[in-house]
Amino acid sequence: MASRAAKERCDAGYGVGTSKMAVYLDYADAIKRYGKIEAGKRGEDHASEEDIIKMGKAVVAEKYGNLFDMYAKITGENPYETPCAFTPPCTTRWAACG
Fold it and tell me: How many CB atoms lie within 10 A of CB 42?
């Protein structure tokens, strides 16, 4: 689903990078959202922004840690801090994609 949405944005002319067939995935909002959910589960209704982000990063690491580790190794960027450049697998070069 996300790949299809990314491809649609690229096809509409919103792609980034030299190929214009990539998008940025920014996990900052997801990290905060997951952190707030985790704080609620723990009964920490008045958690600081720093603690919320820490808890959110832990949740994201549990869900996507392997992917984030590979991304960091390949790019040298920290995907928890910097939006990830993502090239959808179904670009105009792949006629079989639907």
Answer: 11
User: What is the predicted pLDDT for the residue at 61?
Assistant: 96
Report yes or no: 14 and 3 within 8 Å, Cβ to Cβ.
no
Own/partner long-range contacts of 13-20 (Cβ < 8 Å, ≥24 apart): 16/85, 17/85, 17/87, 19/87
Residue carrying structure tokens 């990314």: 6
Given a cut of 70, the residues of the chain with pLDDT beneath it are 1-2, 90-98
CB atoms within 10 A of CB 30: 15
Contact 21, 10 (CB under 8 A): yes
Q: Could you give the CA distance from residue 13 to residue 15 in angstroms, rounded to a whole number?
A: 6
Q: What is the DSSP string of 18-57?
A: SSS-BEEE--HHHHHHHHHHHHHHTT-TT--HHHHHHHHH
